[in-house]
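I hope you will forgive my troubling you with a question about protein structure. I am sending you one protein, given as its amino acid sequence and as whole-number tokens for its backbone shapes. Thank you for your consideration; the sequence and its tokens are set out here:
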Amino acid sequence: TGVQTCALPILAVNMADLAAKAGLSIDLKALAEELHLPVVLINGRNGFGVPDLKKALADAPKRSRHHVFVPDQDIMPAVREIREHFRLGSDYDAYQYLQLHAQLKFLTDADRIFLREISERFKFFPAKYQGAETIQRYEWIQRILNRVITRNEGRDWKSTTHSLDRVLTHKVFGYLIFFGVLFMIFQSVFAWATIPMDFIDTGFARISAWMGEQLPAGPLFDLITQGLVPGIGGIIIFIPQIAILFAFISVLEETGYMARVVFLMDKVMRRFGLSGRSVVPLMSGVACAIPAIMATRTIDNWKERLITILVTPLMSCSARLPVFTILVAMIIPDDKVLGFFNLQGLALMGLYLLGFVAALLCAGVMKLLIETREPSFLVLEMPTYRTPKWSNVGFTILEKTKAFVFGAGKVILAISVILWVLASYGPQGEMDGAREVVMSQHATEQVDDAVIENEIAAYRLEHSYAGKLGKLLEPVIRPLGYDWKIGIALITSFAAREVFVGTVATIYSLGSTDDETTVRERLMKEVNPETGGPRFTPAVGFSLLLYYTFAMQCMSTLAVVYRETKGWRWPVIQMIYMTVLAYLTAFIAFQVLN
């Protein structure tokens, strides 16, 4: 405001440890006299000086009225006229009305006309006075620094940082090291999260089974054991991945390396409407889109953050792996390329690369479509390298995990219950008559009880509301090579992509889904009644692979996008564009290969 004021009239000079390393001696008394404010030296990392800061706050000092900038005398007549007209508290407030009347949204049209007339009458040129103000302010700052700071010129306290930066920000080695760090992070996320995720998955399955045995039969208890408990498990199971990923991100930030990553990648990513800060969310999307989207909070520019959120789910996450594995095994021969590379492994790698390329291309399109007046630039501090403060790392992990569980978790749980209801209920007559219909089909033959139960489950699923939706969806998905059974899998796998395998196992009466070989063999033997040939031809397999590469088949991701964008507008847009992209690519693949 032209007057050195602040809400809490105390200056806390942080990073006392770095000042000591740099050989800087700060005259706190002289600084307080210059600013007309109490000054306290602190170190936020170890709590040094915090008691003194609390004491200064308790003393409730008076607000400083020290003038930093006074408007030029040439424009004071205009300033006084504006101050009187709007009844403002200071000349500097009036000066800001004159400078920024086109940007101040609270001004009425009449106010803007009045201010524009004054600007023209006094021949006011904003750039001239803005430059003068900037020069005055920095001269004032430098004068104070020269008086209160004593430097020990003999100490090169950043020599280690400069030496590391010559390697870590190198135009060749910098990228190689960065991708090596990413590889280590992703390997750790996959390897370390597997055991706790399996433990959580098994634990909730046992809880559900135990409750099913202990609770009496009935719709309410079925909802608890088959809907609510698995739904809660579907939330909790993501915690290990979220915790591990944000642990690494926090360590990279605490050490100062994250700023170098942003600097390295900014030039490349900016061509596609992204920024250097988009790199970590995109790469972490290979593990899981949920923590990846949460990691976009480090992106300051609204447009770049939004584009990153919208394209991150195109990165193939670990949930797609079960779908990719079974489909690739069906349609790609287990041959060797050049006698060394496995053809199925190369196909799997190709799907991951395809997702990354699609994310960049879609980001480039969104860069042209999403309009914003917010300037896009990268300004960041290149901090010195330092040892992480582990309490900060732990706090970050805890806060990010809580944000997911208590934020997006509520939406995930609600959708889980809805999907369970759709798959468990249907017209009463058809659902109640399932056993009678199946038994009549095997009246003249001896069939194992497990086979009977599987066929009853498949019949009920077919005639459930989810099955009805599959039948309703069939005309739309038939051009992709799918039937109503695959349609049900598309619907139920919206809960999570890997649900596709379990759904087709139930639909095709496969019983347990633990043996992927059994699932694959049965799918390969499934007959298309219209052609008499196999249902899962290479054309259908590639169509499904492309569909699951691009489709938004994850309610958890949509829930997080809703939470991060604070509304349903962008999640709906994301759902539509990814579905259209998936449908078109799957349609082209089937029509060409068929």
User: Anything to note?
Assistant: The beta strands are 3-4, 11-13, 24-26, 39-41, 66-67, 149-151, 336-337, 341-342.
